[in-house]
Amino acid sequence: MNTIKNPTLKSKRKPFSDILKQIPGLEEEATDAINDVVHAATETGKAAELTIKIKFRPVGGKAGQVELELDVKTKLPAPTRGKTLMFATPDNNLQRENPRQQTLDGLRTADQEAEAQSELRTTPAEPAAGEKLRVVGGVH
Fold this sequence. Notes:
alpha+beta
């Protein structure tokens, strides 16, 4: 079996990181990708993956030119989705409230409560003239 032996002495080899820095846009793209991968992995508690693939293609025979084709890919974990409990109606439809349970005056359904909570959490787009926003739990 024939093998190709590299004649370059180890002391004359340029570090891989030095070569990567010369490729336009790669450092920024890889930096963004690794940041996305770390964030997704730590938020979900699941594995994420980053692949940097470089194809080397000689151009013009023995002229010394080498074309590099780059591909930066991330494989991000999907966030865990919650579950929803629903009830089947006599007409085989689904709804959040139990159709067999009586309603009590003054009580809200889960959907009505969620809507009321989201209304409480909304803030005006702009404070009124001369009004300052108050910092809660942060540096004043």
